[in-house]
Amino acid sequence: METAAAGSRRPPALRLLCPKKSVLSSPFPSLLWLVGSPRFLQPVTVAAALRCLRFLSDDGPFSPDLPHEADEIRGLLVRGFDIVGGLFVGSANFESDAGRALELAGELRERLFGERASHGMVGGCVDASTGDIRFLVSESGGSEVVEGQEVLWGDEPGRSLLEKGCLLRCELQLQLPLYLPSDETMSGIEARFSSLIESTAANLRSPHVSYLVEGPTATFDESHHSVILHGNNLNSVSQLPINTNTNKCSAKIVSCSEFLPTKRHDLSSIRENADAIQITVLSNQSLNISKAGSPAPMLKYFPAPAPASLRVIDLKLDILCYSSMDLPVAVAVSELVIPGLADQLSIMKKAIVSELLTQQPKLCPYHFIPPGLLIPLTAIYDTRYGEIEEKQSELRRNLHFRLGLPLDRPLLRTSNALTFGAMERRDRSSSKSGSSLLRDVHKEIPSSGVSGGIMSLIEGSYEYYHYLHDGIDDNGWGCAYRSLQTIMSWYRLQQYSSINVPSHREIQQVLVEIGDKDPSFIGSREWIGAIELSFVLDKLLGASCKIINVRSGDELPEKCRELAIHFETQGTPVMIGGGVLAYTLLGVDYNEASGDCAFLILDPHYTGSDDLKKIVNGGWCAWKKSVDSKGRSFFLKDKFYNLLLPQRPNMV
To answer: Fewer CB in 10 Å around end: N or C, the chain?
Structure first.
């Protein structure tokens, strides 16, 4: 019966939770490293795909530089996720390439974790002409390889990851004393520093180290759960039973689920409201471990054999881990958190060692879940010179390549990082926006009424600026200023700029500084138009603009196709100016066959309070047709219009 059962067993299926685009749109040829969580997810499940970027020869993806790849991916992956396979994209020879991908993935995994995988591994190919995926599976890390028969793309993959697992976060500030003899050689300094890092990592399991485990900030209707785990008791916890009845068990057996709120955030909001179990490292120096049993403190003196100098190495560790909900938290700390801290220490050692005697790098880890990815990733930035420094820009660009992210928008800047806890969210929110204005008001409006049209909209968030904001009475003259402020808020909220949205006076000062206006312009109520807006955007942001001149309001529908391309490629708000009033355009709905179209107008002439219902019902943000059902023209026939199309900066 066992033979029959084995013979009738279905071939393994490959489950892909990552978006199709991240796999099938990779350049030909390329090699993808497949990331999963074999400990917590179903076998042969892929949660993300990372591009291989480092190669040994012109043979490209078939000769990856595995040591270099391992060094970069080690800092990127959070503990709890693992390499589960490799995939050649654009392969023409499945029989040889799938096996090669499987072999390379196994070697990379061994370099990352110091041992061969005990879980199933995948090696596959994406056909260059059809996009079909074929794959081999080595089950349970064995030598037997079978061909899989089915590729399953996940339905609501982010939901399955969140329902099955949770995040743990540990921050640790360290000041490590490095004593250097005056005649020490560079190799000797490096050896001393390496020894210091290794002893620090070993001390994470010391009897003098304890771990305070707490849930995210408790709400009024939820109790705050916490336990303390001691370092020397974490070496034999891997076989702890899973037990959800925590009222009658020790702290070791408490599962991770006990620390999380009943209501958790979904993937759409986790980037700004990440729930994570908080792990705090404590030094328990009062623990009595002396053989004599004396409770008195002890002081040891080690005289230096030669003159020496002291250098204090400041390190900021910050790690994330992914765990199943029912895993005992002691196991999570022992097998995920502590190894994660040790990994980050090792990574920082390599980054610092060459600059020990000069200016020490100021390394700071940040965690991200960029659009298109479902799992958190960590990037370690040197913050000495700011984010625009050339090396940091190049590091982000490489990360965009590896993650398959677009190269024309900032998705991995520090302001894009995950936020944890109410205090951090409040600080981040105030630094991001600096205001409490309404955002994205167009999301509440009804459809345009264009039959068979294709809708092209602004991409990203903006703030709604209109008349009488900020205590300024600009009724009758400030509409273009308000449209500019809305555009500026878009650049700020998409992290292209950190400068505040300028006031009317600051806008006027810019135009005077560049020589476009006389000094008397400052403080006046003089109108500005599309040309002036382009000058200000160039001066303050370095953003270029395209301007479309339209001789009559009747001609505006003819520009719908060009505007649709703008929203699809640039995604920025458009300012409509000209002979009469200024508006902000957020999108178009266009039926190319019939020519029917509508314009999504955000009207800066609104003078009421920031009441979303009032704004929507009053048509201050609404779809407008060039000529409505009653024959009234929104755009005037006898007036010209200038359309300002701000361009998205090509930057990361």
So the answer is: N
Of all residues in the chain, the percent with pLDDT exceeding 90 is: 57
Reference 378, options 156, 169, 201, 104; nearest CA is 169
Kindly state whether residues 264 and 352 are assigned to the same domain.
Answer: yes
Please indicate, yes or no, if residue 375 is contained in any of the structural domains.
Answer: yes
Task: Report how far residue 398's alpha carbon sits from residue 18's, in angstroms, rounded to the nearest whole number.
Answer: 20
Where residue 81 sits, what CATH number does that domain have?
Answer: 3.40.140.10
What was the pLDDT predicted at 515?
Answer: 96
Verify whether residue 343 is a known catalytic residue.
no
308-324 and 165-181 beta bridge pairing? antiparallel
pLDDT at 153: 86
**Rg from Cα positions in the chain:** 29
Q: CA-based angle 262:266:271, to the nearest 5?
A: 115
Of the candidates 398, 426, 454, which is a domain's last residue?
426
Q: What are phi and psi of 642, to 5 degrees?
A: -115, 125
Planar angle of CA 206, 210, 212, nearest 5 degrees:
155
Verify that 147 and 194 share a domain, yes or no: no
Known active-site residue 224: no
Q: Which of 230, 382, 603, 621 is catalytic?
A: 603
The CA-CA-CA angle for residues 614, 616, 617, to 5°, reads: 65
Q: Looking at 256, 479, 597, 621, which residue is catalytic?
A: 479
Q: Would you say 572 and 409 are in contact if contact means Cβ atoms under 8 Å apart? A: no
Residue 248, pLDDT score: 42
Q: Where in the sequence is the domain holding 467, given as residue range(s)?
A: 441-646
Regarding whether 421 and 330 lie in a shared domain, the answer is yes
- CATH, residue 637: 3.90.70.130
The answer to whether residue 479 is catalytic is yes
The pLDDT tens digits for 315-351 are 999 999 999 999 999 999 999 999 999 999 999 999 9
Region 242-248: mean pLDDT is 45
AA identity, residue 439: R
The residues, any chain, with a CB within 8 Å of residue 92's CB and separated by 6 or more, are 128
Rounded to whole angstroms, the Cα distance separating 49 from 272 reads 23
Residues 457 and 601 in one domain: yes
The CA distance from 492 to 499, in Å, is 7
Residue partners of 286: CB distance under 8 A and separation at least 6: none
Q: Report whether 238 contacts 335 (CB < 8 A).
A: yes
Give this prediction's pTM.
Answer: 0.79
> What's the number of CA atoms in the CB half-sphere (13 Å) around residue 414?
14
pLDDT at 3 > cutoff 50: no
Judge contact between 147 and 12, C-beta under 8 A. Answer: no
